[in-house]
Every structure is written in C-alpha cells, then in structure tokens.
Amino acid sequence: MPLPRFSLARHLVAAFACLATLLPPAAASALSRVKDLAAVEGVRTNQLVGYGIVVGLNGTGDTLNNIPFTKQSLQAMLERLGINTRGATMRTQNLAAVMVTANLPPFATQGTHIDVTVSSLGDAKSLQGGTLVATSLLGADGEIYALAQGSVAIAGFAAEGEAAKITRGVPTNGRISNGALIEREMAFKLNEARSLRLSLRNPDFTTAKRIASAINDFMGADTAEPTDPATITLQIPAKFRGNMIRLITEVEQLKVEPDQTARVVVDERSGIIVMGRDVRVSTVAIAQGNLTVTITEQPMVSQPAPLSNGQTAIVPRTGVKVDTGDGNKLALVKEGVSLRELVDGLNALGVGPRDLISILQAIKTAGALQADIELM
Length: 376
Description:
Layout: H1 8-22, E1 32-33, H2 34-37, E2 38-40, E3 46-55, H3 68-80, E4 95-104, E5 113-120, E6 131-138, E7 144-151, E8 153-154, E9 157-160, E10 165-168, E11 173-182, E12 195-200, H4 205-219, E13 224-228, E14 231-235, H5 244-252, E15 255-256, E16 263-267, E17 272-275, E18 280-281, E19 284-286, E20 292-297, E21 300-302, E22 313-315, E23 318-323, E24 331-333, E25 337-338, H6 339-348, H7 353-365, E26 369-370, E27 372-375
Parallel strand pairs: 16-27
Antiparallel strand pairs: 1-15, 2-12, 3-4, 3-6, 4-5, 5-11, 6-7, 7-11, 8-11, 9-10, 12-14, 13-14, 16-17, 18-25, 18-26, 19-24, 20-23, 21-22
C-alpha cells in the first residue's frame, strides 16, 4: 500500500514531537580516559612473518608437480635431516607450503608463547589435521624473534564426491594457539626515557589541548605540551624518573572530554549511514521525487485462419508505466535542525536509505550541511 504524500514539514513536526516525549533530557558530555584516547609512543606490537611447511595432511596438500616451491622446500628440509632426494620422483600430497604470521606484543620476554596464523600458499585443499614444522618468524629488520611449531586448528572444512562439493569457512587458513616461542626480545628501555610522547588514536587539535591541560593540572604547569594534533610530549617530573610505570598509570586514568569533527560516513554499497552528534543542517528547502518505470510483457499468440498458408506466431505486447512521484511537495528545513531530526522526518516520509544518501549529498553540495561526508 503506497504511503500518503504529505508535506515533509508535517512529518518533521511529528518526528520532533515524538523525540520530545521519547528522548530523555540531554546528558552531560561523556568523559573518556586518556588510556582510551591515546597510546604511549614505542609501546606497540610488531608483526612477524615466516615461511614453513605443514605436514600430515590426508591427501589434501599441494600438488608437487604444480607447485615447485613446495617440492624445493621438501627437498631442502630432507637434506637438512640427512636424506638426499635430488632427482627422485615425489608424488606426495600430504604437505603444503604456508605463510606463518604472528604479532609480537610489547615487552614480551624470552620463553613466552604467542599465537600464530597459518595460511596456505599453494593449491592445497585443506590444512585439517596438519602439523607445522619448526618455522622461524622474522621481524622487519630480518632478525629471528620467534620459532613456531604445532598442530594447526582450522574453523572450516571441505568435503567432495564425484558430483558434489561442500565447503564451510576457509579450510586453507588455520591457527596455532601458543604456537610460537619467543627467542629474542625487542630492545626498548622505558625507564631510561627522559620524555614521553602520547599518540592520539583519533588526531584532533582540541582533544590534544584538553589532554595536555588535564596532565598539567595534575602534575604541574609545563609538564605536557601538544606538538601536533596527534602527539603530546611529556617532560618527566623528577619524582617519576626511574618509575615510568607509575607515571603512565597516573596519566592514563585522567579523564577528558574528547572532541571530533562533525562527520557523516556513508557506505553506498550497503546503504549504511553513520552520523556524529555535532552534525547540523542550515536552512534549506528539500523536494524528493521518485521516478519509477514499470515494464510488463504479455506476449500473445497469433493464430492464422483455417485453410490458410499462414503460421502460428507469438506477437510481443509490452506495457510501459512511468510514475514520476510529482505529488511530493517542497519542504523547508529551518536553521539548527540536527541531522538526526532530519533523518527521522525523511524516514517518516518513506525515504529509503539510498535516496537518503543522495539527499544528504545534495544538501552538502548546497552548503547547508555543516559536516564532512566520507564515502566508504
């Protein structure tokens, strides 16, 4: 049943009345911990990567004739174990060449374990039941930081017969819990630092200034200074030198009100719209009309007269109906209306997400939307 075409202004008024009765009184702006807004520069994870072989597969591994690097890796591994296979014909499909990745957490010590992810490189069908042979994991500097080995656990599976095949998840990607042993530590002496830098996760001038002001109010003037929208530099007070853990703990618990740029994020593929609370709309007039073209095919059979030489034929009959939606009226949106109120009014009018995206882009082009539109 089509929606009645009332004016947009009437629906906006109704939406405002509903909001007034359903929404609670405006709450004070939420405060966030510095711990959730910024990270200590240098305290970070590091990516590790390695190349290895998974063995013990039940005929679901790489085809050695098609994947030459798997055959070369097998020969090299056997030679290290004292077995010469040069020139021999190998047809096994119980192993697969894989890439092994892991994240080395900050301040990780020798002898601790980390998780690793194993991903197939060749044409293996599944890594189910496989075991990763000892694999060195390297950092960006080319040094070995961990050694990975263990049974691979996968979340998916694959099964096939002569005429059917079923696959669930990704059977060529797996994980080894606590599968890597750390052999080298990252050199980072936190207690010897004379200054500390905080990196904002969402760079913003106002947020950086507020964090610096909160730190100065707690530790004394000129302790913290924002150097750019993403960085705050702290001079270590004398009482905290040699005890950076205490300093970082005190700073992370400070609470400030973060600020952000008014922004509308639009995903045109899925029709998702995400808006910030500070988005505002200036005075603008809006009219929206939908063009709908309906095409129907009703072919008819043309039968020749009796005793004639004609042939039975199908005659196409096409019906075309165009609805321009001219009944929609021009509505005026007044100064200061928030985007949430505008969206509620448009939804009451029956405007879908994709039409709403076009309307928001048109309002932005007209200069009436005080926000940035970010397309995904």
